[in-house]
Amino acid sequence: MAQTLPMVSTEQRAHLGQLRIQAVQTRPSTVAAQEFFSGDRKSKSLPRRIRRLTHVLESWTAENGSPELVCSFSSDPRESRRQAMTAAVMACADASFLKSFQVLFRRSLYQRQQKYQQQQEEDEEEENDESSPDQEELTLFQDLRTLGWIRKGGMLQQPLGEALHQTIFKYVKTIISAEFEEENMFERVQGFKELALEPWLQDLVGPEALEQDDWSSRLSYSCAECFCLVRNEEIFDLVAEYPDSHPAVMELERVLDRTRMHPALGQALKESLIRRLNHPGANTSQIIDVYINTIKVLRVIDPSDRLLQVVTEPVRAYLRRRHNTVRCIITSLTDQEVGGDLYEELRRQDARPLEHVTAENESDDDEDDEPPDFDWQPPPPITKPKGTFFASTGVTKGGGGDILSMLVSIYGSKELFVNEYRLMLADKLLANLDFNTDKEVHTLELLKLRFGEVSMRNCEIMVKDTDDSKRIVSNIQNTLQSNDRAKAIADLASEEPPMRDPVDAEIVSHIFWPALKNEQFKHHPRLQADLDEFGAEYARLKNPRRLVWLNQLGTVQLELDVLEPQPDGTMAIETRDFSVAPLLATLIAHFEDKAEWTLEDLSNETGIPEQQVQKRMAYWVNNRVIKLVSGRDQVTYEVATTEHLLQIGNDQSAAFASIDDDDHGQGVSLAAQEEEDLEVYESYICGMLTNLGQLPLERIHNMLKMFVTGSDVKYNKTPQQLGMFLKHLCKQEKLECGPDGMYKLVKK
Amino acid sequence: MESRKRQSDTAVIVPQQQRQQQQAMQFSNTTPSTRSRLRVRIKRFHGVAKWTWNAGSEDEVCGICQSPFEGVAPGAKYPGDECPVVFGKCGHAFHLQCVATWLNSQRTTCPYCRQEWEFGQSSDQRRVSEQNP
Ligand SMILES: [Zn+2]
Ligand SMILES: [Zn+2]
């Protein structure tokens, strides 16, 4: 402007500026704005002050104002005045000004919501109660329109948007939160939008603006967004309650399709999984259950599996570190009671062999697996193939395949699973006293379908051993009995032949079984005679094959009588039944010959160190059949009196009975098996440490993975297993481990 | 574990011999605990045993296929009955399938000691069959 008036002096220019300031100061908009924010604003409500402002605007004409300065806002004088007013108000406004409108809108919306909910409840009764909107409110809305504040781009757009969002979020939350089993929840939210929000907005912005500004679809999006936000907050529960929550998951999938909020959902789920599962308090089978549910839920939401991979990576990494994960999975697969999902999974009709399972961290040798993150962007919706969220990127690690293969791929090796199953099968078969293998045969058939026939060969032979044992045992028992009868006839004995101790056996093809405990001891002669007789008959039947008894294993069912003569000449008899390991049977059998034994003598009789005999004898002492003799130099045991046996009710002794000795029942020594497996790596580890001095567990693990890949020796252990083995080597004083976790060779 | 208390009113249950014992004990005035004794009935002995072919020490393997005798020869499905071990007169043992394959390829000697192959019995086997003619 200064350039258009080149002749005006500095003085004149200053004067002109002064005039302008005066004009602005006295302009109606400025006066009204100052009044609007003046001292009595507390006594006057916001709507009343708005009313006053609107009144000023409406009565502002060219005569009482200075139109020449206002017209710079717009060619339309009315619009110019409106903008001048708005600018004046904004110039005086403080931070809380817009906020106060947000509060006002929210309060108004809340009243509408209340009314709407009342109507929903009354519903059928009276529809005609067209509750007339608050006249005062309508006036306010009209005034805001007149001021041009709520139109698109107007200064109240932001507080209006906030208020709507908050209202919708709160409403959605009350409606859908923790409600996972009902369908069409989003329709209810839509109903709220159509019957409560849109009428309110129509009152506020007017029918034309409602349509022009596309409020309907903006509100719909906001509803969808809030729907997703509420579900994100409770995504863990939604997953944990699957499949009961299936309706909610299906609906969420539909709503996500509008909002494209998959990454936010993934992030929320990932965080809650870490928070809720990755800690020592969660038990492995729970973690596996939630992991399986996560697979199922995410496959509904994102069939491409991309999201699944990102979300579950921390849980998978955590499961990989837990020592009993494989066992939990196998138990679930094979045991109906604990199994649930996985039990069904193995029995799926469409089960396919697990062929493409590869180690997930085989390719990346760097220390830390780089976790995938949410950097990628969703592809534009137009190119999105129906039903998948992420562009298909081919086969992803840990993705694809069914739930079982997802679980197996945690470790990357099905051999690990097969071996664990073999250990469990061994325990099961050794504890199987009726030789019934129907269940195992069935499970084995299913596992063969998934893990391949070759992988299950050992297990198949183990089950066959049990079946064969049943036949051989019955054969041998029949022979022995008929021998007895023949002998009785030959001897012309009138008496019944003495009852023989019934012996049977699980006869194993040991090459195909896991390492079985095999420390020998000397049986009581009576028991040894029983076994020898059985063994001799086996040798006759299966010549030239022979039996070698594994004395640590097996179960002996005993009936013990404690006999005690009474002063009146009668005999008190207390009888107890037991089911114990062979060693316990041998120990107690010695007390039939002699009522009192020193620990030393028992040790000599059995060939077992005193310390161990003492540990085993505790079982009989706890069961009150045997008691320690007091006041002797040596530890001495004797048969208990009936009085002693009856002391402290039977319930007490029943509790003791369940203790048994700690390794009975667990036929296969897991640790022994693992050590045996790991021993082949010892030379590699020593070689490494010789060359490199000292290494942490992780480096050793990675190096073994890298170097031990030959056909006959392949490294497929978890860091956990390796850690155990390294500790074992430390105990043997071959290695030592520093406080910094570095392993090195012990210098000799 | 079941518990039964049988306060027997004499001889019906307790055999003659034991009754005499018990009377004898009544007179010898020992401490009460030494008077009680234990009777052990074995209702069932369920053992676990592994079978072997009894062909040398544990880690000896079939000289032809190099797998353990208790394992399976190539082509055999199950160990034991389906994959028997045979002994030559020379005393050397092999899987039957392995020896058969060996002899089928125009060879007539023991793959181990190169003596003329003749089927025989293990020393142990001979002893058993002598016991059971
Ligand atoms: Zn062979
Ligand atoms: Zn030979």
UniProtKB/TrEMBL annotation, chain A:
Q: Domain Cullin family profile spans what residues?
A: 406-621
GO biological process entries? cell division; metaphase/anaphase transition of mitotic cell cycle; protein K11-linked ubiquitination; ubiquitin-dependent protein catabolic process
Q: Name one GO molecular function term.
A: ubiquitin protein ligase binding
Q: Where is the composition biased (Basic and acidic residues)?
A: 349-359
Q: Which UniProt keywords apply?
A: Cell cycle, Cell division, Mitosis, Ubl conjugation pathway
Recorded hits in PROSITE patterns, A to Z, give: CULLIN_2
| Compositional bias ranges of the Acidic residues kind | 120-136, 361-373
GO cellular component terms attached to this protein's record: anaphase-promoting complex
State the family named in the UniProt similarity comment for this chain.
Answer: Belongs to the cullin family.
| Name of the protein | Anaphase-promoting complex subunit 2
TrEMBL record, chain B:
**Record's PROSITE patterns?**
ZF_RING_2
Q: Which GO terms describe its cellular component?
A: anaphase-promoting complex
> Which regions are flagged for Low complexity bias?
16-26
- Which residues does the annotated region (Disordered) include? 1-34
Provide the alphabetized UniProt keywords.
Answer: Cell cycle, Cell division, Metal-binding, Mitosis, Ubl conjugation pathway, Zinc, Zinc-finger
Domain RING-type positions:
62-114
Q: Name one GO biological process term.
A: cell division
Record has 4Fe-4S as a keyword:
no
Point out the signal peptide segment: none
Q: Which InterPro entries match?
A: RING-box_E3_Ubiquitin_Ligase (IPR051031), RING-H2_APC11 (IPR024991), Znf_RING (IPR001841), Znf_RING/FYVE/PHD (IPR013083)
Gene3D superfamilies of this UniProt entry? Zinc/RING finger domain, C3HC4 (zinc finger)
* One Gene Ontology term of the molecular function aspect: cullin family protein binding
Name of this protein: Anaphase-promoting complex subunit 11
